[in-house]
Design brief:
- By secondary structure, this protein is of the alpha/beta class.
- It has a single domain, classed as Vaccinia Virus protein VP39 (Rossmann fold), CATH 3.40.50.
- It is about 40% helix and about 25% strand.
- Helix 10 crosses helix 11.
- The termini are far apart.
- The structure holds S-adenosylmethionine.
Length: about 260
């Protein structure tokens, strides 16, 4: 059976239990967004909705959009009073409806980046802002290198296509500008990120990179993930905890 990883990848339970740092670290991005009462704001790739709810606390009116039925289901359960839409970002068709588009830790999963940038630009009112953070060039390089070394041992040259891309600052700025989004500020920075507990790296791989091992039987996948963890231990396990080599690209762009 061929598993459609795109539709099945996200596990909201593991995400909320072990990876709450994703939205906790995204909270200061909301300060950059600076939502105002009454503004309509699209939260692109909203996941289980914690940052959508933060935006709502300001008095703004957010809409969360996500392509994962499991994530949208969880968001609706967490925040029944808020609006959530189940949709692929590249397929959205909003027309000048939003004062701002916000996105945390999601754009690097959206491989149809031209369609997404076009959709964001169309969704914004003139003068509206796009405030976002995503994985930037070099993000989790040591983790991904270790995963690919181990995956090659198990799969030969048949590695699955990458499901993320981590753009350089200039590359992403050019994409936004091609679609009429003027980049007012952008920064690429290292943000080493502590993972929770002894199983932190294993949980992280299972949440975000399990697709590498989905074509092998579950027992072999577990063994392979264990091998990745051991490859990483000397470089990424420090003072009793795991650290992921995150690098983020954060920007503010305005629809002109
Ligand atoms: C790491 S989570 C971040 C969730 C949330 N923004 C947060 O900060 O907690 C990434 C989210 O992007 C969503 N996503 C990935 N690709 C997408 C696409 N093409 N269209 C819409 N959502 C997508 C996933 O379903 C997932 O919920």
């Amino acid at each position: 059976m061929v598993v459609n990883h795109k539709k099945t990848r996200w596990d909201p339970e593991l995400y909320e239990a072990r990876h709450s740092f994703v939205w906790q670290l995204g909270e200061d991005l909301i300060q950059l967004l600076d939502p105002k009462p009454g503004e309509r704001i699209l939260d692109l790739g909203c996941g289980p909705g914690q940052l959508t709810a933060k935006i709502a606390e300001s008095g703004a009116i957010p809409v969360g959009l996500d392509a994962s039925p499991a994530m949208i289901g969880q968001a609706r359960q967490n925040f029944p009073q808020l609006s959530f839409v189940l949709q692929e970002a590249g397929e959205m068709r909003f027309q000048q409806e939003f004062d701002a588009v916000f996105s945390n830790a999601a754009l690097h999963w959206m491989l149809d980046r031209e369609a997404v940038a076009r959709g964001v630009a169309a969704a914004l009112k003139r003068g509206g802002r796009f405030v976002a953070e995503l994985g930037g060039r070099g993000n989790i390089r040591q983790i991904e290198d270790a995963i690919e070394r181990v995956a090659r041992r198990h799969l030969g040259d048949n590695l699955p296509a990458k499901q993320t891309y981590y753009p350089a600052l200039g590359e992403y700025a050019a994409l936004l500008e091609r679609h009429g989004l003027e980049v007012r500020s952008a920064t690429l920075f290292d943000r080493p990120t502590a993972l929770e507990g002894e199983a932190g790296m294993e949980n992280w791989i299972r949440q975000f990179k399990a697709y590498y091992f989905e074509s092998v039987p579950p027992a072999e996948a577990t063994k392979a993930i264990g091998e990745v963890v051991e490859e990483l231990r000397p470089i990424a396990f420090r003072d009793g905890h795991w650290v992921a080599d995150y690098r983020r690209l954060r920007f503010i762009a305005v629809k002109i």
